Amino acid sequence: MEAGQLVIVRLRRLAASLVVPVLLILSYQQYATARHNLYFPSLARIDHAFAVTWGWHGLVKDAFPSLQNLFIGYFWGLAVALAAGVVIAQVWWLKTACEPILAFFLALPAVALLPIFLIVFGIGAPMHQFLIAQAVFFQVLVNTVDGMASIDAALIESADVFSIRGWRRLMLIRLPAAAPQILGGARAALSIAVLVTIVSELVGSVHGIGVVVLNAQDNFDFPVMWAGMVFAAIVGIGLNFLFTLLERPFIRRSGLLATKNG
Amino acid sequence: MSMTTSLLTVTNVSKSFDTPKGRYVALADISFEVEKGSVIAVVGPSGAGKTTTLRCLTGLLAVTSGEVAFNGSPISGVPDGVAAVFQDYSRSLYPWLSARGNVMLPLRARGASRSAARASAEEALASVGLSGKESSYPWQLSGGMQQRVALARALACDPQLLVMDEPFASLDAQTRMDLEDLVLALHREKGVTVLIVTHDIDEAVYLANRVVVLSAPPTTVAEIVEVPLPMDRSQLATKESPAYIAARHQVLSHVRRSASPS
Q1: Residues from chain A contacting residue B82 (CB–CB below 8 Å)
Q2: What is the third-level CATH fold of B3-81+160-259?
Q3: Which of A45, A135, B114, B130 is the most exposed place for a label (fewest CB within 10 A)?
Q4: Where in chain B is the domain with CATH 3.40.50.300?
């Protein structure tokens, strides 16, 4: 009885969550087929363009360079931010001194720096990777410093009483205690990284997901443009899903998942 | 002779805090001794600065004037040989470590090998009745069990002085009695000296050889009451004995006298 009911509840929830997307897609299709608007091609044409554009050849030529920039930029931004965040959080005057500049760069949209990165690095992969890394860096850095600064005093007091110092204090107490906030920053940074990857390709690049979208628009090839946008969305959703899978063990170990579930 | 050797000597300790409203004298003048092998309870009216006293005595907080000596030498910071159990077990245990991991961490920090720390941790967990729960995480255990883990963590360090800050305040009455008896049993078996801060007068008299009654702030020692009972105590017989009732009466009347009107 309980298993059956659970399945019904799950199915009902799935159905409810599908209502809005399905309605939107159907209304788009209705609009597109009725109007024959050049800019809004029918789903069949987008689907066809998707299959043609994002076949193996398209993946190798345009998706792989984008994803490569994305991963390299994200990795370095994350790694350097974690290291810098740990150091800044330990030294109170460094933290105070860095706060204004951190607030400034966090508020500044990363793509606003595109012209400067173009001048410094020229056109090419390093420009994209540094721009992505820079955006990820500030997002993760601010969250790491905040997370390490707002650790529950009781946890630190235990560490004091039991003389837990040095790397054990950092790796086994402070970092796990700050992990939920650091992971939150890393997740937000991933979305930003996808955005910066695509937007930065709109300027002077030869290959990339953003290039495909931009070129298709220039050539009035609107089905391909739409297919590019759908692909970009799939990349974003896919990476977010991947992140959820990778973060799960950390969240579970920090006891948060379990306390939420009772 | 060994019973009269002082393990912790508190001499004219005062503690003031600078606040925006001026200087706040939390502790005016505290002096008492904790003899080796004894159980000392510190009680006082609400807001008497019991926790501040404890933090000064363990070196977590620097005193403004006066001296705290452990084994005859003045302390600066938490001395080796002192272990603590805090009131809020849910915040003093590390949720990302198992019960065993929580107990092992201080031992590893003191340089014990992994296998030695593991063996001591499992022995300590067994001594508080948690055999079979070694791999459980704190959030998988009841409040009483979590406080047993905190007790095991303190005992595993083989401390000379076990300091407890309202350790059973957030537990239900039945669990609290079980843990009080556990502390007495561990005291008898291991000969560890115990300093317990509590707001519960019954608990203080039931556990202690001697009860230190604090006054309202600026806090002084209002009275020191001897409890002339053997250490072999039981929740039923001891609490009905005339000596217990007399000591309880004496402590309670001092607490009520020293309370500021509320």
Answers
A1: 161
A2: Rossmann fold (3.40.50)
A3: B114
A4: 3-81+160-259
